[in-house]
From TrEMBL:
Coiled coil: none annotated. Residues 10-70 form the HTH tetR-type domain. Residues 33-52 bind DNA. Pfam families: TetR_C_6, TetR_N. It comes from Amycolatopsis saalfeldensis. This is DNA-binding transcriptional regulator, AcrR family. InterPro entries: BetI_C, DNA-bd_HTH_TetR-type_CS, Homeodomain-like_sf, HTH-type_TetR-like_transc_reg, HTH_TetR, Tet_transcr_reg_TetR-rel_C_sf.
Length: 195
C-alpha cells in the first residue's frame, strides 16, 4: 500500500476544515450532521473522522484554527484590525468565521464540557492581544494610565459586541468611525497633539 505524503494529509485536513466551517456556519453545531459534513467537505465519514476523533474535536479544531488566524493578525496589527477585517469582509472566511464564533459563544453558555476544553485553547487570542499592547506601550504608543489587562478586556468586549451586532443582522458598514474611536481610546495622547 503506498504511503500518503504529509502534504496530502495536510491538504485533506484543510479541505475538511474549510468545508466544515461552511457547514457549521450554515447549520450550527447541532444541525451540522455527519451527512451534511460529508456533503460540505466532499468526503466520506471515514475520511473526515480519520483526521478528527469526533464532531466536537472537528469543531474545536476549526475554532482553534480561526483563533490562530486571529492571533496572527492581532500580533501584527492589533485586535481592532481583526474587527476591521470582519466588517470589511476581507478575511478569508468572514461570514463563516462569524458563524463559528457565534457557535463557540453559544456552546460556552450551554455546555460545561465544551467550556472546559475551549478554555485550554481560547487563551491564545488574549495572550496575543496583551503582548501586542505591551509592545505598543513600550514603543510609547499606548496610554499608560490604564493597566494592559484592562485594555485587553476592553478590546475583547468590543469584539464580542461587534460579533453580537453582526449576528443580529444589523449593518456594519457604518462602524468604521466606531472602531476609530476604539483605537483612539487605547492610544497614548501626547501633550500638544491635535485630534
Amino acid at each position: 500500500m503506498p504511503r500518503v505524503s504529509q502534504d496530502h494529509l495536510d491538504a485533506r485536513r484543510r479541505q475538511i476544515l474549510d468545508g466544515s466551517r461552511v457547514c457549521f456556519a450554515r447549520y450550527g453545531y447541532e444541525g451540522a450532521t455527519v451527512r451534511r459534513l460529508e456533503e460540505a467537505t466532499g468526503l466520506s465519514r471515514g475520511a473526515i473522522f480519520h483526521h478528527f476523533r469526533d464532531k466536537e474535536s472537528l469543531f474545536l479544531a476549526l475554532a482553534e484554527d480561526d483563533a490562530v488566524r486571529m492571533a496572527d493578525v492581532v500580533a501584527e496589527q492589533g485586535l481592532v484590525q481583526v474587527m476591521r477585517e470582519l466588517l470589511a469582509g476581507d478575511s478569508e472566511h468572514p461570514a463563516d468565521w462569524l458563524g463559528t464564533r457565534l457557535e463557540v459563544s453559544r456552546r460556552l453558555r450551554t455546555d460545561p464540557e465544551f467550556r472546559a476544553r475551549w478554555a485550554e485553547r481560547s487563551e491564545q487570542l488574549t495572550v496575543a492581544t496583551r503582548e501586542r499592547l505591551k509592545r505598543q506601550r513600550e514603543a510609547g504608543n499606548l496610554r499608560d494610565d490604564v493597566d494592559v489587562d484592562v485594555l485587553t478586556a476592553f478590546l475583547e468586549l468590543v469584539l464580542e459586541g461587534l460579533v453580537s451586532h453582526l449576528a443580529m443582522g444589523l449593518p456594519g458598514d457604518d462602524l468604521g468611525p466606531v472602531l476609530d474611536l476604539v483605537e483612539e481610546t487605547v492610544r497614548r495622547h501626547r501633550p500638544g497633539a491635535t485630534r
